[in-house]
Amino acid sequence: MGLSHRPVAEKDIPLICGFPRDEEELFHLFPRASYPLTPRQLLRAIEHRADSTVVERDGEVAGFANFHRWERHGCCSIGNVIVSPAARRSGVGRYLIETMIGLAVSRHGASEVNVSCFNTNAAGLLLYTQLGFRPFGVEERLDRRGNRVALVHMRLDWTAARVRQTDNNSPLPGI
Question: What residue ranges define each of the domains in the chain, with the CATH number in brackets?
Answer without folding.
Answer: 3-168 (3.40.630.30)
